[in-house]
Design goal:
This protein is mostly helical. The protein folds into two domains: 2-76, Glycogen Phosphorylase B (Rossmann fold, 3-Layer(aba) Sandwich); 79-107. It is built from five helices and three strands; from the N terminus they run E-H-E-H-E-H-H-H. It has helices spanning 13-20, 31-37, 56-63, 68-75, 80-106, and strands spanning 2-4, 25-27, 50-52. It has a three-stranded parallel beta sheet, with helices on both faces. Helix 1 (13-20) crosses helix 4. The termini are far apart.
Length: 107
Amino acid sequence: MFVFPSFADTFGLVMLEAMAAGTPVAAFRADGPTEVLGRQHPDGIGLLGGAMHDDLPRARGAALQVPRHEARERAMDFSWKQAARQFADFLVPAARRSFMQAVRSSA
């Protein structure tokens, strides 16, 4: 198990690295862990790849129950190709809005 004791990380690449090696993650509820661990398990109980809780020892206990193969499977949901696609999906509309605002203000 990998314990991620941060309240401030924005993504949590180290969590993905641990999960890619089949190591479940225990973390506080924060932005980074929510992004990485936030998907519910198909059985509706727990999270894929690890556990989050406001009480880190409770998260740790729950993460011990996560099968190693599930941690790895969750890590495989992330890829650089997917990250680039998401970035472009957000960037293009933002650039379009910025361009349209510039056009309107110059008119």
